[in-house]
Amino acid sequence: MSSPRPHFLVLTFPFQGHIAPALRLARRLLAEAPDALVTFSTTEDAHRRMFPAKPCDGDGAKVATDEHDGRLEFLPFSDGTETGILPNMAFNAYLASFHAEGARTVAEILDALAARGRPVTRVVYTLLLPWAADVARDRGVPSALYWIQPVAVFIIYFHYFHGHGTIVAEHRHDPSFVVEFPGLEPLTIGDLPNFLTDAVDPSNIFHNVFNTSRDLMETLDKEGPKATVLVNTCQELERHALAAVGAIDVLPVGPVLPSGNVSGIFKQDDAEYMEWLDAKPENSVVYVAFGSLATMAREQVDELLLGLEESGRPYLCVIRKDIKVALADAEAEMLHERLKNGMVVEWCDQVQVLSHVAVGCFLTHCGWNSVLESVACGVPMVCVPGMSDQRMNAQLVVRDWRVGVRAQVDKGGVLRAAEVRRCIDEVMDNSEAAAEVRQMAGKWKQIVEEATGKGGSSDRNLMAFVDDGARSAV
Ligand SMILES: O=c1ccn([C@@H]2O[C@H](COP(=O)(O)OP(=O)(O)O[C@H]3O[C@H](CO)[C@@H](O)[C@H](O)[C@H]3O)[C@@H](O)[C@H]2O)c(=O)[nH]1
User: pTM for the whole thing?
Assistant: First the structure.
């Protein structure tokens, strides 16, 4: 009997910041393994948003694409809701439904693919769905966790649930208390993901993220020596942290960068902003974006735009539609009237923008995808971290790679106009310090290019993973 083709089922939570790196990895797997198949699977609602124009076929809204000779297929699973996740939805309840329905329908997908003669040989799952490993194990299919944040953050979660949790929990209300994790410089409680501090309390709106993180680490324990963790980083970016992961089989395979047409659940504005960028001098533009989840109050939008105007530099600022909707309509209109030097869009092709020669600085919330994209494009950053991994990510940018500065918010958590201006000057003016940041950004761009290029460290790790997948398919 001939052995089945290697077939990866890539599963992801329906956030843009999770879908993007998962889809990028899916395409990298197809490029590395010319005979492999990939089925990409997220929730039904996210799937509909990714393919608004495509008719769904009868058996479960399958969308095959022409990419990679049709070897990439999209097949959604259910999260038990009609609408998908909404901004005002109780996150704890959503995660419970996502788990129960997701586990049931992913099991059905595995069975259906096997029945179609395309059995899955490896499940790859991102954050917030530890149950995927259990579903795979029940069917005898090996799985790998794809960690889409820095390995430094993986270390924090891992050690939190393997001994460090008690001390963090005891001091979780003291942001300046110092904690040490293997392989990392000392950190304060304030640097840790809020899911391991505030969300420990059962009344917290993200308490189920804390529970799910614990389940994820237990899942790795259950897998034992077979546990594989792919990480969207490269060994050059996080050498010390990677040296401290010990017995776990951690494979840095990143940064995975975009390719292909479909990129996620948001649709970009007309490419008018590219023409606008074309008309600007080299390294003159400040690009501003806060990812796909962060919200902004009226006061913050005002301070931000004021600071950008006062910087005297041209700027391209993303203010998502849902943020605008949360402001009164009339006020959102006024946004445009007040702009002299800048352009506000609801969504853009961020990597295309960061790759443009006119862009000289990225004011970012430090989502890991944004950070990696900026490093890969050689653009210095002004860091305004918010929740989750973002404060740790900012540490890497400022302290470890020295490709940016960190902005300070006031006591009320507002980033003031004067601070916006100060930080932009710090990375864009003619000072020696600014020149050094720009030089470091150029250096890291090159390092990352080498790591992900043919024969680079991340490329070799991905090859090893693919070869392993091919072996387990035999
Ligand atoms: O106008 C825009 C704005 C953003 N993006 C893209 O959207 C993604 C945003 O991802 P990220 O920068 O990681 O931010 P979030 O959407 O906030 O991501 C969530 O998920 C990440 C991965 O787990 C975490 O690092 C973040 O903290 C978490 O908020 C990136 O690929 C951007 O290129 C665009 O294409 N156009």
Answer: 0.96
**CB of residue 148 inside a 6 A radius of ligand 1:** yes
Q: How much distance in Å is there from the Cα of 257 to the middle of ligand 1?
A: 13
Nearest CA to ligand 1 atom 31: 369
Local confidence pLDDT in tens for the 474 residues of the chain: 566 799 999 999 999 999 999 999 999 999 999 999 999 999 999 999 999 876 555 445 677 777 777 899 999 999 999 889 887 788 999 999 999 999 999 999 999 999 999 999 999 999 999 999 999 999 999 999 999 999 999 999 999 999 989 999 999 999 999 999 999 999 999 999 999 999 999 999 999 999 999 999 999 999 888 889 999 999 999 998 998 887 788 999 999 998 877 888 888 877 899 999 999 999 999 999 999 999 999 899 999 999 999 999 999 999 998 888 777 765 666 666 668 899 999 999 999 999 999 999 999 999 999 999 999 999 999 999 999 999 999 999 999 999 999 999 999 999 999 999 999 999 999 999 999 999 999 999 999 999 999 999 999 999 999 988 665 655
- Please answer whether residues 149 and 395 qualify as being in contact, where contact means their C-beta atoms are separated by less than 8 angstroms: no
Residue pair 175/189 in contact by the 8 Å Cβ criterion: yes
Among protein residues, the one whose CA lies closest to atom 22 of ligand 1: 17
354 lines ligand 1 (CB under 6 A): no
410: CA distance to ligand 1 center in Å?
A: 24
- What are the structural domain ranges in the chain? 7-153+191-261+451-473, 272-449
Specify the length of the chain in residues: 474
Whether the CB-CB separation of 379 and 399 falls below 8 Å is answered with no
Among the CATH numbers 3.40.50.2300, 3.30.200.20, 3.30.390.50, 3.40.50.2000, which is that of 7-153+191-261+451-473?
3.40.50.2000
For ligand 1, the distance from its centroid to the CA atom of residue 17, given in whole angstroms, is 4
Q: What is the CATH number of domain 272-449?
A: 3.40.50.2000
> Across the strands, what pairs with 240?
none
Shortest-distance Cα residue to atom 1 of ligand 1? 347
Q: Where in the sequence numbering do the catalytic residues fall?
A: 18
The answer to whether the 7-153+191-261+451-473 and 272-449 domains have the same CATH topology is yes
Nearest to 14 by CA among 62, 80, 61: 80
Atom of ligand 1 nearest to the CA of 289: 3
Cα 67-355-260 angle, rounded to 5 deg = 5
Is 415 exposed, middle or buried (CB count within 10 Å of its CB: 0-12, 13-18, 19+)? buried
